[in-house]
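A reminder from the course coordinator: this example appears on the midterm review sheet, so study it carefully.

Given structure:
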């Protein structure tokens, strides 16, 4: 399968110079060239074909090839920077017969020389990654294989937790809500208390609690209530002496009637006998 050519960089204005032999091992100097009178002007293209990389110098109008520099490594002898400027390089060109020569190239703008360096570096970084990937693939293919498939009859169990549903800003569980009228919420108390009027007899009904067993005597008569001035003491009741007898008087309690005055003995609160009403 033939490799396709990919253009990595194009610069439409490049200057070519004939350079003298290397003066020393320190490198080339662009100040030794005739910078104001280049020997050739044209276009530069950086072309990659598979793993091979070329710098091609072509005519601006016709695109005819003037010279090309095969780059096998960067940095290396194929492309060298000069010691006194970042816009000039020395490249090694080769023809089809294999003859080589060193020429100088330069750019008017410093950004053009920067783009040339980046294009060369990116290509060789890509080659390095390709080699590492091939080595990793080879080690994987030659290494032991892991059998991660299920054996016959083998099963797995997955426990799925209960999820929560989000409705607006509230979070509700998947559990159903208990049914009921109030749903566990107590109603508030009424806004105000209601006062009941006093009974027509003028004296509040007396209440008492019967003992659990035993004899219970009859409540006091009307005359006893009147004589006591509406005061009834619970100690006057006879609850019997023998709780085991089991006999309880079933006489109903008679309503207590007091004086005709609806306020009872409250009128005598200021008297000397201090006859207060007890509830």
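Designed residues:
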């Amino acid at each position: 399968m033939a490799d396709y050519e990919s253009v990595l960089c194009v610069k439409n204005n490049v200057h070519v110079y004939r350079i003298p032999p290397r003066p020393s091992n320190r490198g080339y100097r662009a100040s030794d060239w005739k910078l104001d009178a280049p020997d050739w002007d044209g276009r530069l293209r950086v072309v990659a074909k598979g793993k091979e990389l070329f710098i091609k110098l072509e005519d601006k109008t016709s695109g005819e090839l003037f010279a090309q520099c095969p780059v096998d490594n960067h940095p290396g002898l194929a492309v060298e920077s000069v010691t006194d400027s970042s816009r000039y390089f020395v490249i090694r060109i080769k023809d089809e017969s294999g003859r080589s020569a060193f020429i100088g190239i330069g750019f008017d703008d410093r950004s053009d020389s920067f783009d040339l360096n980046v294009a060369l570096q990116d290509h060789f970084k890509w080659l390095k990654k390709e080699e590492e990937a091939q080595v990793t693939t080879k080690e994987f293919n030659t290494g032991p294989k892991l059998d991660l498939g299920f054996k016959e009859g083998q099963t797995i169990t997955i426990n799925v937790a209960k999820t929560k549903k989000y409705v607006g800003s509230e979070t509700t569980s998947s559990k159903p809500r208990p049914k009921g009228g109030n749903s566990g919420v107590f109603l508030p108390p009424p806004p105000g208390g209601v006062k009941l009027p006093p009974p027509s007899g003028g004296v509040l009904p007396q209440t008492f609690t019967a003992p659990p067993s035993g004899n219970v005597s009859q409540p006091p008569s009307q005359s006893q209530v009147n004589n006591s001035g509406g005061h009834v003491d619970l100690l006057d009741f006879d609850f019997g002496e023998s709780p085991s007898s089991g006999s309880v008087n079933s006489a109903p309690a008679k309503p207590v009637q007091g004086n005709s005055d609806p306020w009872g003995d409250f009128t005598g609160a200021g008297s000397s006998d201090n006859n207060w009403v007890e509830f």
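Strands lie at 5-17, 40-49, 52-58, 65-71, 79-81, 88-94, 100-106, 165-167, 170-172. Confidence is low (pLDDT under 50) at residues 239-250.
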